[in-house]
Amino acid sequence: MTERLTSLSGLAPTAKLPHYDRDALKPGILHLGPGAFFRAHFAPFTDGAIAAAGGDWGIEVASLRTADVADHLNEQSGLYTMLVRDTAGTTAHVIAPILRAHVATRNPGDLLAKLEDPAIRIVSLTVTEKAYGFDSATGGLDLKHPDIAADLADRHAPRGVVGYLVEGLSRRRAKGIPPFTPLSCDNLPSNGAVLKRLVLDFAERVDPDLRQWIEDNVPFPSTMVDRITPASTDATYRDAERLTGRRDMAAIETEPFTQWVIEDHFANGRPDWEQAGALMVEDVSAYEKMKLRMLNGAHSLLAYLGYIGGYEFIRDVMDDVGLAALARRHMNAAAATLDPVPGIALEAYADELIARFANKAIAHRTYQIAMDGTQKLPQRLLEPASEAVADGGKAETYAIAVAAWMRYALGADRNGESYELRDPRAAEIAALLADVPRNGGAVSKALFGLPGLFPAALTDNLGWTEDVANKLEILIQDNR
Ligand code: CS2
């Protein structure tokens, strides 16, 4: 069997290697959530920054749930291969700033010790929307979220993201260690501000003085992150092995495009990420809204329509000219809700998105994007739709997207085969729909009643809700 990737020596000449002395690297960042997106985005940006500008910005990662990625990274001394795929071919880059991986569920003390380590100056996060414990109806802490409830009950033995951050900051304060900068890299609008509010809400409940200290001392920069990263498959591992000459169980694959916009507010220094192409700004909100509404909104639209239409990958959906045209129409509608974005022409941005979605070398499953709909819909579709209807617009493509999500939420395809919704509110949705007749009016009425999901600006708009019901009826009919 081929040797495992554990060092940078002896790799095939087709492997692109990092240009810095890895052995001299010291940890400066703790990253929570070492999933594929982090390995395709944050880690290579940091790799590039270290190569260009040095600094003690090695990364230790911690997984709060499953152990496999962390275990694979430790078995490989933190090294892994990033495949960049486009139609011209695939290139393999070995990414090297990860020094160690922790598994919180196995050894929570290890992670807590890292959080109070003065060398750690940034604690970054890619934990997905549902891990925050954010109540989209109030904007504050969701007290029913299992991690939030558990961590409020036992704050010194946390298990969730907010609980760990508050406990880590509390220990640093008690020991006179300067705070780290929490850096959210998840697809939430104003992700830093959201995280700040959750951390402050949590701290207020356990220790109001700590809340004040955090408010006075800890910056929470927001970021806009972008890189399409499908889940790894056997083809990923096979190509990584072919191009590096080493077996790699932590390999990931991604597209050529990458973008990162970061608010430049750090308590304690940061890597020179701009040397690797990041844009440092004062306020990221215009970029975030653009990306969430144009890219992610269109992605969700295509994922739901595509999945229920029998398309496995986004690139297949883009081969359907009607659906590709619809995606473009939706991007235009989303662009109409935006303020100007510095340095970006929205037309050209939309053209580029269409090309990225159509990339034949990227096998991005519609089912992957369809997951966690209740966590994604608000910022991607419902907020811009509310603004569009308030301005007297028709918000038609939003109605299509919502109808497609509702059709998907029925949990059975056109042949009657059932599938798992993969949404934290799946049980609630199933209960709500249990006795509802399968027609557009009844199903949409039931789902519009899902607590806290749809804003009143939409549910009070009869024209729009009827539009959703009619479109949903067509999708349901199509499946009989
Ligand atoms: C996708 C995103 O899975 C999803 O919901 O829309 O992960 C998307 O690929 C990234 O945000 C692109 O940057």
UniProtKB/TrEMBL annotation:
Boundaries of every Mannitol dehydrogenase C-terminal domain copy: 283-474
Any Pfam family: Mannitol_dh
InterPro entries noted in UniProt: 6-PGluconate_DH-like_C_sf, 6PGD_dom2, Mannitol_DH, Mannitol_DH/Oxidoreductase, Mannitol_DH_C, Mannitol_DH_CS, Mannitol_DH_N, NAD(P)-bd_dom_sf
Catalytic class of the enzyme: oxidoreductase
GO BP terms, alphabetized: mannitol metabolic process
Domain Mannitol dehydrogenase N-terminal: 28-274
Keyword Phosphoprotein (UniProt): no
Keyword NAD among record annotations: yes
Protein keywords: NAD, Oxidoreductase
E.C. number(s) listed in UniProt: 1.1.1.57
Molecular-function GO terms, alphabetical: fructuronate reductase activity
The protein's name in its UniProt record: D-mannonate oxidoreductase protein
